[in-house]
Design a protein that fits this description.
It is a single chain. The chain is 46% helix and 15% strand. With 725 residues, the chain is of the alpha+beta class. Strands 1, 2, 3, 4, 5, 6, 7, 8, 9, 10 and 11 form an 11-stranded antiparallel beta sheet that branches. The termini are far apart. The model is unreliable at 1-21 (pLDDT under 50).
């Protein structure tokens, strides 16, 4: 009776009744299961198409228009000539890379007025799903919960490798098998990746990033968060490296664009690549995140942002250099802050504990259940006691030493240095290849590097490191430096930054170009290199082994905990946590009550942009051309019937990171918006979905078209779209 194969869980998943206990609009659903579990409810909510219109391997469908954009966002085709639309913040790094003081595309925007003016982006990729397949039986056949963990994991890994290899055989595709339901179900994804992606257009930051950090994660939003790219392919329509001879990719499907707009109650669907959620974790996990990890990470990022903000305000060049870095730091900083507040407001820990008490009573009521599951929650308690400490040490240490850019560059040099260690005489071709990669990285590094800013980060972050973590978790090289400086890193910093090869491009280039065995001695005297290597070794020896052990033990518990939850709540249709694979969410355009006596409408307009206009603040300095269009009510065919120019709207779709850039689709399958954010009150939805306040925020596609046509004068781009009046 103890032996129970995990395939039993799949039967629970596959044969549950259709009426779920999942709250309305909660869920990030697997496309190939839409027909089985969701299409009826979707149609009841207003959807007028079929499941095969969403996902099909037999004919062109919506899935053929959606790509994973550069590994972290979603984008979608809006023309038969490879034109992609995604968020401004998803393309932010590329816009910034092309920006200079002379051509400040961040401030002024960029618009290619012909195909020849579109800008290449080396290293940027988009990935298109060809098909997915449930391979659970192939992966888990004859595998049981009571197998030794090492044997079980080795067997699963071997089977996954075999499945992936067979799927790729004879093709140019790449296959990946991903676990679902905490390792109780597995799906194969076969993808095609395109490597020639060119920037077509982006509004100025005063539109694409309007409101900046202040408005981020907050409704109402007035941000024109979109950018345009084009995918190029070889003449055979297959992926190819960048070449002037490449031609625009011809997708199997692209979205028609609707000018109809939205009204409260309208059906909406978000189709994209959500990153990570943790909906089924125990209360111990919520406690760790809310009360231990997030507060510490918010605190250190607050210090980082204060330093970077001051530097960006002092110099236009630094503003360009650090704009993308700041955006990455501040986005998570504000999200973590919102998670703390949201989890507290919803009493998530208390509700999880109440559920765990009911679950425990149910387990204890049956001897077989008690034998199989009675140890899970007590073991969780033990595991999370260790995880709280080791996760904090690992995350905080990474936040410190990844925040000092000279240390990051020093760490990248280790690969070259390792070729010469131990008196080795390395192959010259290997040396040259490694040097070329490092030099290319350094070229990008110094282009966006300011020594004074990094020096202040060095002093502040090293001080915080010693103040926050217990002494036993501090790397020896750090303790040596602290003793040398008598705890005053600010006085120590100028000497280091004056002499190090990692703080000056000319010194670095000269050092790398002449790198040999004798160079190792110089590295051993460089504090940035010694810190980089010592911290990595310290974590590897003292933190990561135990953190890995605890994480693996938690994963084993997670698999069993997912199983018992599904057995306990057998009438519920469970959706799997997000894991950066293609998913569907659906809901309706809907306002919400933010707090007592405050009700938010679901649509924002250009009027709100003008109300926020402040020329003294970079993020609120409305461009003169936009003011002119507003003053003349010159909205063309993009305004709404009430004479307003819609900007953004909210709906009840369940989204998360990675959904940025996802298409928002109406009941007829037309594109009506581009998802880019969530409302502050529901930002904790990665761990606890709140149907009353969880809202995704999208730019109204009409505002994007208005900016392209009326503001930028790039209306020729609309000629290649299919626009539905």
């Amino acid at each position: 009776m103890m032996k129970k194969t995990l395939l039993t869980l799949i039967l629970v998943l596959s044969f549950n009744g259709l009426f779920a206990s999942t709250p309305p609009d909660e869920g990030i659903w697997i496309p190939i299961l839409i027909e089985k579990y969701n299409i009826k409810l979707m149609q009841e909510k207003g959807f007028r198409l079929t499941a095969e219109d969403i996902y099909s391997v037999n004919r062109a469908s919506m899935k053929d228009a959606i790509v994973n954009f550069n590994g972290g966002c979603t984008a979608e085709f809006i023309s038969g000539s490879g034109l992609l639309i995604t968020n401004h913040h998803c393309g932010y790094g590329q816009i910034q890379n092309h920006s200079t003081l002379e051509n400040d595309y961040l401030t002024n925007g960029f618009w290619a007025m012909s195909r020849e003016e579109e800008l290449p982006n080396p290293g940027v990729t988009v990935t298109l799903l060809k098909y997915m397949e449930d391979v659970t039986e192939k992966v888990l056949k004859d595998i049981s919960d009571d197998m030794p963990a090492e044997e079980r994991d080795k067997l699963i890994s071997s089977r996954i490798a075999d499945i992936q290899a067979k799927a790729e055989q004879g093709t140019d595709y790449r296959a990946v098998v991903r676990p679902f339901f905490m390792g109780n179900q597995y799906f194969l994804f076969v993808n095609e990746t395109f490597r020639d992606v060119r920037l077509v257009g982006a509004p100025p930051s005063a539109i694409g990033k309007f409101g900046g950090d202040t408005d981020n994660w907050v409704w109402p939003r007035h941000t024109g968060d979109f950018s345009l790219f084009r995918v190029y392919a070889g003449k055979d329509n297959k992926p190819a490296d960048y070449s002037p001879d490449n031609v625009p990719y011809n997708p199997a499907y692209y979205f028609p664009v609707s000018l109809k707009g939205v009204q409260e109650g309208d059906f909406t669907m978000v189709f994209g690549y959500p990153g990570t959620t943790s909906e089924y974790v125990p209360s111990y996990h919520i406690d760790m995140v809310k009360n231990h990890i997030n507060p510490a990470m918010v605190s250190i990022r607050t210090s980082k942002l204060e330093i970077i903000d001051r530097a960006m305000e002092s110099d236009p060049l630094i503003r360009i250099q650090y704009s993308s870095k700041k955006a990455g730091i501040s986005n998570a900083w504000k999200k973590w802050t919102g998670e703390i507040l949201g989890l507290e407001k919803m009493n998530t820990i208390g509700k999880k504990q109440e559920f765990e008490a009911r679950l425990t009573d149910w387990i204890e009521a049956d001897n077989q259940r008690k034998l199989r599951y009675g140890d899970i929650l007590p073991k969780y308690s033990e595991v999370y006691e260790g995880l709280k400490e080791y996760t904090l040490v690992n995350n905080y240490t990474g936040e410190v030493f990844n925040g000092i850019e000279a240390i990051v560059l020093a760490r990248r040099t280790y690969e070259l240095a390792s070729l010469f260690q131990g008196g080795k005489t390395p192959d010259q071709k290997t040396v040259e290849r490694t040097r070329e990669v490092l030099s290319a990285y350094a070229e990008r590094f110094f282009r966006n590097y300011d020594r004074a800013t990094d020096q202040e980060l060095f002093s502040t972050l090293l001080s915080l490191y010693g103040e926050t973590l217990d002494r036993k978790w501090l790397a020896p090289e750090y303790l040596k430096l602290k003793a040398t400086a008598n705890g005053d890193f600010k006085s120590l910093a100028p000497k280091f930054y004056d002499s190090s090869v990692f703080t000056d491009k000319q010194r670095f280039d000269s050092f790398i170009n002449g790198f040999g065995k004798s160079s190792l001695k110089k590295l051993e005297k460089d504090p940035f290199y010694m810190l980089a290597i010592d911290v990595s070794r310290f974590l590897g020896a003292n933190v990561l082994p135990e953190l890995t052990r605890l994480t693996n033990e938690r994963q084993t518990l997670n698999k069993r905990y997912m199983t018992v939850q599904m057995e306990y709540d057998s009438t519920r249709i469970f959706y799997p946590d997000a894991n950066s694979t293609l998913r569907v969410a659906f809901g309706n355009v809907m306002g919400y009550e933010s707090r007592d006596a405050v009700w938010f409408k679901p649509v924002s307009t250009l009027k709100g942009i003008m109300e926020k206009d402040n020329p003294e603040i970079y993020d609120y300095n409305v461009p003169a051309r936009l003011k002119e269009l507003y003053a003349n009510r010159d909205y063309g065919r993009y305004g709404s019937s009430d004479g307003e120019m819609p900007v953004c709207f909210i709906a009840s779709n369940h989204t998360t990171g990675g959904n940025s850039g996802s298409p928002v689709i109406n009941a007829d399958g037309f594109l009506i918006g581009i998802n880019f954010d969530r409302a502050w009150e529901g930002v904790a939805s990665d761990m606890a979905f709140n149907p009353e306040q969880s809202r995704n925020i999208s730019i109204d596609i009409r505002f994007a078209l208005f900016i392209i046509d009326k503001f930028a004068g790039a209306g020729y781009l609309l000629d290649e779209m299919t626009i539905v009046e």
